[in-house]
Amino acid sequence: MKSSLKGAGMIVGVPKEVKDLETRVGITPAGVKALTEAGHTVLVETRAGDLSAFPDDEYQSAGAEIVGAAHNVWGLADMVVKVKEPVEQEYKYFHEGLVLFTYLHLAPLPVLTEKLLSEKVIGIAYETIRDRAGTLPLLTPMSEVAGRMSVQVGAAYLEKEKGGRGLLLGGVPGVPPANVCVIGGGIVGTNAAKIAVGMGAKVTIVDLNLNRLRELDDIFNGRLFTIASNSYNVARVTREADLVIGGVLIPGAAAPKIVTKEMVAKMKKGAVIVDVAIDQGGCVETARPTTHSHPSYEVDGVVHYCVTNMPAAVPNTSTLALTNATFAYVLKLAQLGAKAAILSDDGIRDGVNTYEGTLTCEPVAVSQQKSWEPVRELLA
C-alpha cells in the first residue's frame, strides 16, 4: 500500500493526538495545501483536527487523504508530524527510518527514549531546534500561550471552591491585590508577568540573569519587582506569594529544582503553584505531571497545577500559533528528506534527539546518564 501512494514526494502523516485531552493537531489545512501543491502526500487520521476547529472536509478540500485509523497514518508515512510526545499506546507504531517531528521532552522520559532508539526512529524535537539568533522558535509560541494561561489558571485556582485562598488576583479599591511570584524571566515568565500586571496583581519576577532583569524593568516601566535568583531570595518571595508560576527552562534538559519542598511547606495555605516547566520535570520539587482530567493536587495545603499540555485548553489559538512556527521546517524536511535537511540546516540539526539508534542530544544524555554522539559526526 505504501508503494502505491509513493510518488516523487514524501508521505506526511498527521495522527490524532491521544494524550489526555490533547486537542491540538500537528498540521492545519493550510499546511496540507502547501505540502500537496509541492508534490507531497498528506495522510490525516479521521477527526484529527476536530477539536482545533479543523474538520475533515477542510483537510480534504486542501488535498489531504483522510485515513480511518492511527495505524494507517503511522504505517504509511515517511514522516509523522505531531504536537505532543508519543504515549505508550503509540510506541507500537514506531519503525526504522520513520521521521518523527514533534515535541519530545525526552529528558524525563527514559522509556520513550529507549523505544525511539531501539526502533531506529529519527526523532526531531520542536523544543531543541534553534534559529540563527540562538533562540527556540518552536518552543516560543507555546511558551507564550502557556505563560499567559498560567495566570488565568492561577487566578481561577485562587478561588475558594478550587482550594485556593479565596483571593481576587487584582484586588479591589481598599483591598490589596494578590502577590504573584514568577520564577524565570524568559518567554513564559515575561508573558505571565504581562497578564498578571494587566490584571492588577503585585508581581515579582526572579531570574539569575541581571541583564534580563534590567530589560524586564525597562519593558514593564517599573510596574513589577525584579529579584536576583538565589535560594534565600526564592524562599522569601515564595513565602510571601499567593501565586507562584514556574517558568525555568534549560533546552532539552531536565528543569532545575528552584523551589524546594521546604519552601513549599512554608508557603501560605491555599496558595497556588502553576509549574509550566513540568514538561521538563518541573522547577518545583513537589511538582509532578498532571492532566486536564485531573489537573491539580495539594501538598502542605498548597494547590499545585502541573498540566503538561496546558495550551491544549485553547487548541484553535495554540494550533495556529504552533503551526505558524513549525511549518517551514515541515516543508523543508519534506522537500529535502531528513538527512539532507539535517545537513543543510543548523536549526534542524539541533532538533535531532535520536538518529537511527543513536542518542544525539547531549542534555538528554546527561539527564538519563546515557552515551551520545553529535548527529553531525554520524552523518559525516
Name the beta content range.
15-25%
Strand order of the largest sheet: 3-2-1-4-5-6-14-15
Distance between the termini: 33 Å
SSE arrangement, N to C:
HEHEHEHEEHEHEHEHEHEHEEEHHHEEHH
User: How many DSSP helices?
Assistant: 15
Round the mean pLDDT to the nearest integer and report it.
95
Report the major sheet.
8 strands, mixed
- What is the strand tally? 15
Q: Would you identify the regions where 5 or more consecutive residues have pLDDT less than 50?
A: none
Radius of gyration (CA) equals 21 Å
Specify the structural class: alpha/beta
Global shape: globular
Query: Which percent bin holds the helix content?
Result: 25-40%
Question: Your description of this structure?
Answer:
This protein is α/β, with parallel strands linked by helices and 380 residues long. 36% of the residues lie in helices and 16% in strands. The protein contains 15 helices and 15 strands. The strands form two sheets. The protein has an eight-stranded mixed sheet, with helices on both faces. It has a seven-stranded mixed sheet with strand order 9-8-7-10-11-13-12, with helices on both faces. The longest helix has 22 residues, at 315-336. The protein is globular, with a radius of gyration of 21 Å. The model has no long low-confidence stretch (mean pLDDT 95).
